[in-house]
DNA sequence: GCCAACGTTGGC
DNA sequence: GCCAACGTTGGC
């Protein structure tokens, strides 16, 4: 099983929105960056991911989600009405993919970006690397455990 | 709102 | 293939 981190702007879609979804499950669609897409495609059912809130007053890790469906074509790429529309992606040759994620839990104590930056064991996280804007990134088992420790949950 | 950093686009 | 221009991300 692998670990990941998924960014989202809570004003658009936060961890609490996911908890309110039917079956607490939603498509993680709209990813339009090739590196992030490749990570999406590497995800397997049963993987876990941190739900990270970005572009907000207190950026950080707020919850844990389960990957409940591996990558499949993102239909918003084919929808001219969608902000994620990409005419270069076609039905028989899809360019963009999404996974399904299910709410697992909210962290009792979120782990802030500044905490993450202050933690030596997390220095290699793409999240805190200079200029990094990846919205989907891998998290090593050690990093995963380190972040959970920071929540005080163990 | 500012701005640094980055990815993408498109002319050549 | 180069690279300037542009748009986006995201912390502050």
Q: Can you tell me about this structure?
A:
It is built from 5 helices and 6 strands. With 154 residues, it is an alpha+beta fold. It has one domain: ph1033 like domains (ph1033 like fold, Roll). The protein has a 6-stranded mixed β-sheet. The radius of gyration is 15 Å and the shape is globular. It starts with a strand and ends with a helix.
Summarize the structure.
The protein has 154 residues and is of the alpha+beta class. It has helices spanning 10-13, 15-20, 34-42, 113-118, 141-151; strands at residues 3-8, 25-28, 48-53, 60-73, 97-112, 136-139.
Tally the structural domains.
Answer: 1
Strand count, sense and barrel status of the largest sheet are:
6 strands, mixed
Q: Report the end-to-end length measured between terminal Cα atoms.
A: 19 Å
Structural class, judged by helices and strands?
A: alpha+beta
If strands are numbered along the chain, what order do they take across the biggest sheet? 2-5-4-3-1-6
pLDDT under 50 segments (min length 5)? none
Number of strands: 6
What is the percent of helical residues?
10-25%
The named CATH superfamily: ph1033 like domains
CATH first level: which class? Alpha Beta
CATH A-level architecture: Roll
The overall pLDDT, averaged over residues, is 94
User: What coarse outline follows from CA principal-axis ratios?
Assistant: globular
Q: What integer value in Å does the Rg equal?
A: 15 Å
Strand composition percent: 25-35%
CATH domain topology: ph1033 like fold
**Series of secondary-structure elements, N-terminal to C-terminal:** EHHEHEEEHEH
């Amino acid at each position: 099983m692998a670990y990941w981190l998924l960014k989202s702007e809570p004003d658009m879609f936060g961890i609490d929105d996911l908890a309110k979804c039917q079956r607490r499950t939603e498509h993680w669609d709209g990813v339009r960056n090739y590196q992030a897409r490749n990570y999406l495609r590497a995800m397997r059912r049963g993987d876990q991911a941190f739900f990270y809130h970005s572009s907000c007053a207190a950026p950080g890790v707020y919850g844990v989600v389960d990957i409940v469906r591996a990558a499949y074509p993102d239909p918003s790429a084919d929808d001219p009405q969608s902000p994620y529309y990409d005419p270069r992606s076609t039905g028989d040759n899809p360019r963009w993919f999404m996974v399904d994620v299910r709410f697992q839990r909210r962290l009792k104590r979120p782990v802030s970006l500044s905490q993450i930056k202050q933690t030596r064991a997390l220095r290699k996280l793409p999240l805190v690397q200079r200029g990094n804007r990846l919205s989907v990134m891998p998290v090593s088992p050690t990093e995963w455990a380190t972040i959970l420790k920071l929540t005080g949950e163990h």
